[in-house]
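User: What would this chain look like folded?
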Amino acid sequence: MYVHINKLIELFHKEKISTFLVTNGQFPDQMRALKDVTQLYLSIDAGDPVSLREIGRPLFTDYWERLLECIDILKEKRGRTVFRLTLVKGINDETTDSNKEEQERNENILGGYISLIKRGTPDFVEIKGVTFCGWTQDSGLSMKNVPYHNDVINFAIQLINGLEGYEIACEHEHSCCILIANTKYKKNQKWYTWIDFDKFNEDLQGIEYSCETPDWALFGSREKGFNPNETRYQRKKIK
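Assistant: Here's the prediction, encoded as structure tokens.
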């Protein structure tokens, strides 16, 4: 983590610039000393140490202990906190196969993620399908590993079935992304997952600078997360 990160955050906040920070959960000392930001993300690439070693290829031998410590630290942060899960089809997602081996695999994958979410109690869990950036020998990924939006939805449903106090709040179909939110962000049947940037300061809890989610961003909306005030361009297929 950048050694002058806190000074940089101070400068941003002084200029009323919002701060979104993503960490891979491998630097607990730096994360503990981190000033509160507008929204803090923790990438959770897998729900168990064996899978994390295969997927994340961590630098440290105590990578799992570092991740767990960062999760515990995140739980104590005042600002909005997010677990970010990137789904890679056939690797860290659940499958629909009915054989016993795949059923056990599904239970292990979902159970691992559920356990970590319960431990860290993040405000949000953002689940996004992996973006294919071209084949490389190191990754071995192909378009077959890119989930459809419905795959991400199904995974999110399976996840919240094992959790209390969380529901699917938003979706962004063209980004293949689903947002699960803690129900403390739901008041009178309305979600408040948006951010009031003018209201934010480091002394507030995340819920205190949140504002109502627009209808077009809600899960199940006709727009499926696309802002109707923007123009969408569909790329024509080359024959």
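Residues 4-217 form a domain with the TIM Barrel fold (CATH 3.20.20.70). If you want, I can go into more detail on any region.
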